[in-house]
Amino acid sequence: MTRHNLFHSTAMLLAMLSLVGLIGWILAGRDGVIITVGFGSAFTIFGRGASKNWMLKGIGARRLKPEDAPGLYAILHELCRRAGVENPPDLHLLDAESMFGFSAGADEREASIVLTGPLVQGLTAREIAGVLAHEVSHIHAGDLVVMGMADMITRMTRTLSFLGLLLIILNVPLAVSGDGHLPWAALLLLAAAPMTNMLLQLSLSRTREFDADAGGVDLSGDPQALADALYKLEIQQRGLWSAMFLPHQPGTEPSMLRSHPVTEERVKRILSQTPACAPLPAELVGENHGFPPGWTGELALPIRWLMRWWR
């Protein structure tokens, strides 16, 4: 993580936690600040990633064994060696309609990378290596920790805000009868806090994506492959004709509401970067895709996606 991004991430997390403390002050004064910030910090530090396995099971992601996908694991292990990741993450395959991949887990020691069937079917070995390098960069930079903390704070803010709004609504009859008054400033703050924290979390996510792109290029040594992968993901998710003829069509979400930066900006940065490592060798991303010599194993996948370049 660069010094700039470390400062940015720390500032964002502190701002989000400050909103939690402000809600606590509205609900219970100074004691509320102490309780909410204390519990928020504890949940943020110790509650991250506790539901990773539940989440993976819930979305139907299936763990791939090394013997199921030796090519994928060969590429992944080389990228982890370059990054200095001592415990390579597990690979999971998700039966989905869209191309995407993501990392899950509390930290580097128990991370997992999830790839969808269309992504592995639709990308070349070089492009998949770029995607894996991007995710390994996320893991090695501690983004699972940072984004897990941000997600916990956002959830807590949403819960406390709902509780505060409920208490205020329950006091409406007293205000109408003249026995009390509605704290309009507090009401507005409680209503705006969840959206504010969400926007801070999205901004933090976009910053981490730029850094993971840079780290992915350094690890894979192949800027063009990662750029091509991003363009393919963009075209598949938006549709070919829309991506070609309506690149900035009305109705697309504003930048501040995106969890990922605009693809054009990401590609521009990627192609202007000089990689720190050499490209992966041909035995990993070439015709044989990292299979051991003489490998004749059978694929035993319990879902319908058959990876066209695995064998």
General description of the model:
With 311 residues, the chain is mainly α. It has one domain. The chain is built from 12 helices and 4 strands; from the N terminus they run ααβαβββααααααααα. The chain has helices spanning 3-46, 52-59, 70-83, 117-122, 125-140, 143-170, 172-177, 184-220, 223-238, 240-245, 263-271, 282-285, and strands at residues 62-64, 90-94, 101-104, 112-116. The chain has a 4-stranded mixed beta sheet, with helices on both faces. The longest helix has 44 residues, at 3-46. Residues 240-248 and 290-303 have low confidence and may be disordered.
Number of domains: 1
Strand order of the largest sheet: 1-2-4-3
* Backbone shape: elongated
Query: Strand portion, in percent?
Result: 5-15%
Number of strands: 4
What is the percent of helical residues? 55-70%
Largest sheet: 4 strands, mixed
Mean pLDDT: 76
Radius of gyration (CA) equals 23 Å
Multimeric state: single chain
Order of helices and strands: HHEHEEEHHHHHHHHH
Distance between the termini: 37 Å
> How many separate helices?
12
Low-pLDDT segments, ≥5 res:
240-248, 290-303
Q: Name the structural class.
A: mainly alpha
Question: What brief labels describe this structure?
Answer:
311 residues; mainly alpha; four-stranded mixed beta sheet
Q: Could you give a quick summary of the protein structure above?
A:
With 311 residues, this protein is mainly alpha-helical. It has helices at residues 3-46, 52-59, 70-83, 117-122, 125-140, 143-170, 172-177, 184-220, 223-238, 240-245, 263-271, 282-285; strands spanning 62-64, 90-94, 101-104, 112-116. The chain has one domain (3-285).
